Sequence to fold (451 residues):
Amino acid sequence: MTTIDIVGGGIMGLVLGYDLLKRGVGVRIWERATELGGLMGRIRFPELSDVEVDRYYHAILNSDRTLIGLIDELGLTDELHAVTTKMGFYHNGDMFPMSSPLDFMRFPPLSMIDRARLATTILAARRVKNWRELEQIPVIDWLTRLGGKGTVEHIWKPLLRAKFDTSFDNVPATYIWSRLVRMTDTRDKSTAKEQMCFLTGGYIMLIQALAREITRLGGEIHLGTSIQKVCVEDNRVTGLQLADGRVASDGVILTLQTPIACRLLPSEAAATAERWSALEEYLGIVCMLLVMRRSLIPYYTLNITDASIPFTGVIETTNLIDRQYTDDYHLVYLPKYVTPGSVFAQMDDETLRQKFMGYLRKMFPDLQDNDIAAIRIGRERYVEPLHPLGQTDAIPPIAADTAGLYLVNNSQIYPQLTNGEAVITYAYRAAEEVVQSQQRINKPVATLVAA
Fold:
């Protein structure tokens, strides 16, 4: 049996492993951490009787058909719950609901003309069939043409500034197009209200179910193991170099972020490393998680259009998740996407906590110290891959020039947004391509000559 080694035990690596095993391919998964899940892992609060919650927030939309199909397949259907949620905007020191067409029509920063043009923008996004045309257009140019300067100044620029850490001149229109299409799919067709879903135990339930199935199907999962290098001879993968030895392999899939994946390539794969490095810029994230004794906002997501507040948004996930699963605590996430040189990326945890609390108290002056039961700071260097204007062709392919070597990560999902649905859909596609590639590699020479 062909054996494929997958480096990375996040959701991408696990779905790849699961699907390859179902296709009759042997799988070994290697994860450097002592737990699976990556960004979808959990965090524990010993000081709160070991309350355990998602390290970061992850949405499941009612339109995520592939993800929900996998949840059903793994026997977790009864653990998935749909809830009507709300969205709001924070503008000039006030919160405004944006959960219905009536809320939209009442939003104070926009004139009646602006509101009409914003609606036109949303409808135009849903009518786009060829996203490659948008890939050549700066996002602000596209939004201004459709929605006018009012919507750009009051809505889009503040949101883009928060998402891309102030610099978005080189961002193509595909970013907003993907976001609008995805988020408008959450509306219940009969009520026009937003619906989202959650697993009772968080995404870790999906991670654990995948791990169980991988083991049941004969796959191996190795935790706490650091891969030193991919071994290559005669332009073909031969194995993996571990800290304590070498394992032979028929193929290697790197699900790591591109800059990290490149570090594992030997000099024999220099051409592949150069090809992958053509598009390897990522935004990082710093995120403060507050475990609270009371609710902070009535929304799942509070978008921020106030330039004086650095958060990408305020997300209270317990306006979606039933609090019986969080020991009755409220969970509030304060994310900030950052470039490597951002002042927020450079701050230590205590300084960041003080800064973020200062901004939060500005937004919510009635916030008291005893409202907060615990705080954690999360930070990741590589989270959101950046795709500059006109660089689609720079996205590395799944199969490398080195036979048996594959890159499968979120930088290749473009133009879709990075989310659970997109990752799982892409993992299925990648598994099929890996199988086809291995069949070509293993085809006898005589068969190739005859063909």
